[in-house]
Amino acid sequence: MDRVLQRAILLPFLFLTLVGKPDAASPNVLIITADNLGYGDLQCYNADSNVRTPNLDQLAAQGARLTSFYTASSTCTVSRACLLTGRIAQRHRLVNQLPGVDGNYGVGLNQNEILIPAILKSVKTPYATGCFGKWNIGFAKGSRPTERGFDEFIGHVSGNIDYYRHNYRQMHDLYDGVRELHRQGEYSTDIFADACIEFITRETEAKQPWFAYLPFNAPHFPMKGNKQPGQPTRWQAPDWAFEPYGWSPEEEDPYRRFCAVVFALDRAIGRVLKALDDAGASDNTFVFFMSDNGAFMLGRRGLDVGSNHPLRSGGITCWEGGIRIPAIARWPTRIKPGIVIDQPLWSPDLSVTTAAIAGAELPGNVVFDGKDITAVLCDGAKSPHESFYFSFRSHSAVRKGDWKIVRENPGEKWKLFNLAEDVAESSDLAKERPKKLHELTSIFDSWNDSF
C-alpha cells in the first residue's frame, strides 16, 4: 500500500510531457555521491594520496575521469538541492546549510521545485526510483523523498549521523520511507549500499527502467554532538577496513582512521557495481560518481584531514578546493574507457542529462542551469556552458573558459586567475589583465540580473 501511495503522490507532475521510448532502450541511471571527499583524496587524481580506493580507480579506468567538474555549491545541503533540481541556489532559494534538528526536519527545499525522480515519472514507462543515504534538504510533510518522486527511501534526514547508532544529535535519524528504521550496530555505509543493491536487482529482474540515487554519508567527519557521553569523536570504520593498510582497528591517528572510512566506502561502491554486473545491467546503466563538495580545510584538529591537492582551500569556499570535485562517469556502450575529460561541467548537469538519457522532456516553465552533457562524455564535445556562477555566504566566483574571478567578501576586490596555468590560484592577475577582469565581473553581474 505504501508503494502505491508513494507513486500516487506524483500525479501533480502530469503536466510534464509524456515521451514514448522503447522499454528495452531505456537506460538505467545510478548517481553516487560521497560526502566531503576531496579532489586530492583519490589516487586516480593524486598519486601521492595514501587512501586506497581500488573500486573507484577501476571505475575511472572503465569510464571517464572528469578533472574540471564542479559542484554548484560548496556545502552539503545546497549542493544536493542543486544536483536534484538542475538549478543553482539563487533560483531554488535553498542557499544555506539546514541548521540543526529543526532545520533538517523542516520544509527545506521549496516543495514546488521538481526533482529528477519526478521528471522520470513522465516517460511512457515511468522509471522506478530509489534514494539510499543522506537526504539533507528537508523532511517536513511534503518534503520527504517518497513525496518528491522517489518510490522508496532508506536513509537519514540530516547532514550527518553516527555511523553505527544512526543518530543526529538527540534524534534517531534512520528511515525507511517515512517510518523510523532501527538497525543499530550496522555500519551506515553498508546499509545504504545493501538497500541500493536490493533495488537494482529487483527492478532489473522486473525489466523496469530505474533511477538510483546513492548519497553516502561517508566520509563526513565525526560530530561531537552525535556522540554519547564519553564516546570519542573519531572517524568510524569497521575493523576490516584497517587491514589493507596494516593498521589496528584501535588506531588513534585521525588521518589513518579517515583512510579506513574511505576504504569502507570504496568497498561498498564496489559491491553496488558488482550487483550491476550480476544483474546483467552494467552495459545499459549510466553511472556517475562525485563528491558533494571539497574536503574541509578549516584547521579543526582531527577533523580536517582530507586533501584537495593541488587546489586551494576547501569546503564552504568558492576557491577551487571547495567547488572542484572528483567525478567519474561510466556507460560501457557509450563512454570510452580510461579517458580524461577536462571540459568544465557542473552538478546541475546531472538532472538535465538524466532526463535526456531517459527520454523525458523538461518542464518549459522552469529555468535550468544544467545542460545535457552526454555529447561531452560520449563524443568528445566541448562544454555547453559559457560560464559558471558560484556564491555561498560571503564567497563568490565566476569561471569562463580558463579564467576565474574570486572574492571572499563583497567588500573586497576581485582576484583573477588563469586556471590552465595556475590551478592552485596562487597568482592574482587582476592588475595585469584589467580587460579580462572586467569581462568576468560583467558576467557575474549578468548572472545576478538573471535571478
In short:
The protein is 26% helix and 16% strand. The protein is of the alpha/beta class and 451 residues long. The chain has two domains: 2-387, Alkaline Phosphatase, subunit A; 394-451, Arylsulfatase, C-terminal domain (2-Layer Sandwich), CATH 3.30.1120.
Protein traits:
alpha/beta, 26% helix, four-stranded antiparallel sheet, Arylsulfatase, C-terminal domain, Alkaline Phosphatase, subunit A, disordered N terminus, 451 residues, globular, ten-stranded mixed sheet
Cα radius of gyration in angstroms: 21 Å
Number of distinct beta strands: 18
Query: What's the architecture of the largest domain, going by CATH?
Result: 3-Layer(aba) Sandwich
- Show unreliable segments: 1-23
Give the distance, in angstroms, between the N- and C-terminal Cα atoms.
Answer: 41 Å
Class from secondary-structure proportions:
alpha/beta
What profile does the largest beta sheet have? 10 strands, mixed
Tell me the series of helices and strands, N- to C-terminal. Answer: HEHEEHHHHEEEEEEHEHEHEEEHHEEEEH
Structure characterization notes:
The protein has 451 residues and is of the alpha/beta class. It folds into 2 domains: 2-387, 3-Layer(aba) Sandwich (Alkaline Phosphatase, subunit A); 394-451, Arylsulfatase, C-terminal domain. The chain contains 12 helices and 18 strands. It has helices at residues 2-8, 54-62, 76-85, 89-92, 100-104, 116-119, 188-205, 254-279, 320-323, 349-358, 374-379, 434-449; strands at 28-34, 64-66, 69-70, 128-134, 152-156, 167-168, 171-172, 175-176, 179-180, 210-215, 285-291, 327-330, 339-341, 345-346, 388-392, 395-400, 403-407, 415-418. The strands form 4 sheets. It has a 10-stranded mixed beta sheet, with helices on both faces. A hairpin with a 2-residue loop joins strand 15 (388-392) and strand 16 (395-400). Helix 7 (188-205) packs parallel to helix 8. 53% of the residues are buried. Residues 1-23 have low confidence and may be disordered.
